[in-house]
Design brief:
about 210 residues; alpha+beta; Muramoyl-pentapeptide Carboxypeptidase, domain 2; five-stranded antiparallel β-sheet; about 10% strand; binds zinc ion; DD-CPase-like; Zn_M74/Hedgehog-like; signal; D-alanyl-D-alanine carboxypeptidase-like core domain-containing protein
């Protein structure tokens, strides 16, 4: 009796790490509380592939909001990186870009909404680049904290556009929220309001 009970316990323990991993994977892929992820999964869109870590066999795709480094999206491009932004943010960015372009400044979005695994991938890459988790955290937020994952942030490019946004973005409610990221904008005030001072960096801000 005692013996067979113990072997049952051992078997249960052996299974547990796998079960936990599977549950954790399911939660991170579909479990965001804002409902945006749920909507995309519900329409049969990105499913299994986005539950996988990024590997050569499961690379980042447009469905992750992926924008290759050095590239930019037109502000009205119909891709998940833009379509899964907060609609008010996307509208404000389009309006601001139209105003900038009327003044001869071209605006692209170098990053918008990102899947959680995309954000994790960026954070891991930043740890490699900056040499420590502490330094990486100044530049790349975790998947749980990133305003890109919730669809509440855009990175604008290129330099002239970021400069234009720093001067006129607040007319559209858009504010630079991290002092060290000249390109990162969020809806932070009413149109025409005064932007609050940015947080020092992603490690300080939330
Ligand atoms: Zn950003």
């Amino acid at each position: 009796m005692v013996r067979s009970r113990r072997s049952t316990v051992v078997a249960a323990l052996a299974v547990t790490p796998l079960a936990v991993a599977v549950l954790a994977g399911a939660c991170t892929a579909g479990g965001s509380a804002d409902g945006k992820s749920g909507r995309a999964h519900g329409d049969g869109g990105p499913g299994a592939a986005q539950r996988m870590p990024v590997t050569r066999l499961t690379p980042l795709t447009e469905a992750d909001g992926y924008v290759p480094e050095g590239e930019g999206l037109e502000v009205s491009a119909e891709v998940p990186a833009l379509e899964r932004l907060d609609p008010e943010l996307w509208a404000a960015v389009r309006e601001a870009a139209a105003a900038a372009e009327a003044e001869g400044v071209e605006v692209v979005v170098t990053s918008g909404w990102r899947s959680e695994r995309y954000q994790r991938f960026l954070l891991e890459a930043a740890v490699t680049t900056y040499g420590s988790e502490e330094e990486a955290a100044r530049w790349v937020a975790t998947a749980e904290e990133s305003s890109h994952v919730t669809g509440d942030a855009v990175d604008v490019g290129y330099t002239d556009a970021a400069d234009w946004f720093s001067r006129f973005g607040s007319e559209f409610g858009l504010c630079q929220t991290y002092a060290n990221e000249l390109w990162h904008y969020e809806l932070a005030v009413e149109p025409g309001g005064e932007c609050p001072p940015p947080a020092t960096d992603a490690a300080e801000g939330s």
